[in-house]
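INTERNAL TRANSFER SHEET
From: sequence group
To: structure group
Subject: diguanylate cyclase

Please process the attached sequence and return the structure record in the designated field. Keep the field labels unchanged so the import script can parse them.
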Amino acid sequence: MSKVVDQQFEAFKAHGSLPSPRGVALQIIQLADRDDTTIGQIARLIGSDPALAGNIVKVANLLTHRGSRPIASVADAVTIQGIKSVRQLALSLSLVDAHRHGACAGFDYQKFWAHSVCTGIAAQQIVAKMQVGVADEAFLLGLLSKIGRLALATVFPAEYARVLTADNLTEAEHAAFGIDHNQITAGMLADWGMPKLFQEISLYIERPEASEFHEGERNWRLLQLMHFSDRLAAVCTAEASERYRLIPRLMLLATRVGIESGTLIEIGDRVIASLREWSALLGIFVPALPPFEEMLNADSMASELLGLDALPGSLPVGFKLRILLVDDDRAIRLLYKTLLEKSGHTVTTACNGREALESLQASVPQLIISDWMMPEMDGIEFCRELRKNPEWHKIYVFIVTAQESTDRLIEAFEAGANDYLSKPINPKVLAARLRSAQRIVQMQEAQEEDRLQLRQFADELALSNKRLQTLALTDALTGLPNRRYGMERLEQEWAIAMRAGRPVCCMMVDIDHFKAVNDNYGHQLGDEALKLVALSLQQAARKQDVVCRLGGEEFMVICPDSDLRAGYTYAERLRQHVAAQPIQAQGKSLQLTVSIGLTDNANLDSTEAMLHQADTRLYAAKASGRNCTVVG
Ligand SMILES: Nc1nc2c(ncn2[C@@H]2O[C@H](COP(=O)(O)OP(=O)(O)OP(=O)(O)O)[C@@H](O)[C@H]2O)c(=O)[nH]1
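Return from structure group:
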């Protein structure tokens, strides 16, 4: 304790006598603390106080196994219980006896003792289980950890009754008495010659985060466990309605100090059983308690979980995960669902692998936290099944395991897990691991978005290329394939025909006296007429024929699989089709005709030769009076 607190404690002591083990009990405590004390010495000392001696024999009989030979003498009691346990008994019996009631209205003496004894029992159980210190010492420390409150109620009964109604008790105590109950406890333990560590722990038992112990060191761990014992005692001694408000925080605390829910239930049940025996012994009232597992699973706990804080650390702005939580322990599901939702994530739950797989059909999360050991389908099998579906490959999976052996971890990674979390899950570690998973999920999603965007660009590009290509190969006025297309197509048809030894025809079609149309009616009507002739040619063509506009009023028609004879018949049909249909444009009726030069591939060695021949024949058709077809 600091010098100032020391002085405050000295000043406080001057106001009246503090609770203390009296007479024989005090001597027992002092004697028991010495290394050379014998059982005989302790037994003789206890024997000098008949009431205490009677109680100690009674206690020893109650605490030893039923059915064994009853303990009749103090010496037997000390031998069986051990000197340290007898010291605890002497101290508790003497303090409880002297302060079962008191003058401070509003100070619940019964509840105070129930809580103190329960903290002692819990500390003893937990310290033994977690192997961080001497269990008997932990009992004593737990029992006395709030003795400062009894001291305040004893020294200032009227004033303390008023202070007890305050929301923040330690602050109100400071305001009223210049010292708080934790500081008084530390002072009293110092006065009773208790180890310095006891004093430090009692100072910070209610607020371990304010202590100067270094995280991870043995004393820090002991303080955390004592704080946990204090909270566990609060749960065990609270009224039912209050109890369910306290349980969620106790569970969270358990995960922080490394006690998983199975161990918590085991310790809780032992504490409840032990408390029942102690309360009967000391004549203290404790409320009836259900089995611990029932408390953790109670529905009424769910709403209280909402009072919990979010996981430590902040989320990247605007990035929240869709998480699926898979665990067969309902309390764990509830606790982590609440914590994760408080941190901004959206959480769904499943109680085993099979249920999780079913839920994936409905909605796909970005991250899964799955326990390993579960009934029906365990975490590993679930992982394997999950990875079989390519749609679920991107889900980031954490496997929660109590065993960190290399083989187990390799098995988890081989089944498809991305990472693992050790059981019990430490919220700080979970928060850090989640942030790193978030970064990966975020990166994956950004990549996926880039990929989708690229694909969209590529699709758009392909489409516009196709459009450009179509434009490049189409005549804008008539919508027919243009010269470029016509020439390429003629090459293709030529190659096919030559390879297959088949004929192919080509005709040049030119509108007669078209200049006159333009001159007499204007270019606009000329254009209209060109479009209608193009349409007429197309209508008269067969499906496999290719009609294109070479430019101006000149067209080319390619007729695959046609020799000159068939081509001629066809050319004539075309010519007559145009001649037979007067063209209606801008309210005028024009009678147009075409001249055709026809050729085929027979006896020619290239498309150029073919085109040249068709051209020559077209000129011949013009020369011979137009509106006719020339074939040779
Ligand atoms: N309206 C319009 N006229 C065009 C187009 N392309 C070419 N022409 C016209 O078509 C006419 C072709 O005339 P010429 O080559 O002298 O031949 P023609 O008058 O048809 O006479 P012959 O071919 O000898 O029967 C010219 O007046 C061109 O201006 C076009 O896209 N639209």
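Handover comment: The mean pLDDT is 87. The pocket of guanosine-5'-triphosphate is lined by residues 477, 510-515, 518, 523, 526-527, 530, 552-553, 622, 626 (CB under 6 Å).
Transfer complete.
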